[in-house]
Predict the 3D structure of the following.
Amino acid sequence: MPDSMVDHAEIDGLIEDTISADEIRTFKPDVDLYRHAAGRIGTPIEERPSM
C-alpha cells in the first residue's frame, strides 16, 4: 500500500523505498516494527533494558 500512495502523490522520485508493517504483520507500537525498519535501512539501534 505505501508504494501506491507514493505513486498517487507523484513523489516516487523523492523516495528511495517504503517500509510497511505488513512486511512483518504487526503494527505500532510493537517494537519489532521499529527493529525491522532499522534493519531494512541499516541503522543500528541500541537495546534498552526492560524496566
About this structure: Residues 31-41 form the longest helix (11 residues). The radius of gyration is 14 Å. Residues 16-45 form one domain. The chain has a mean pLDDT of 86.
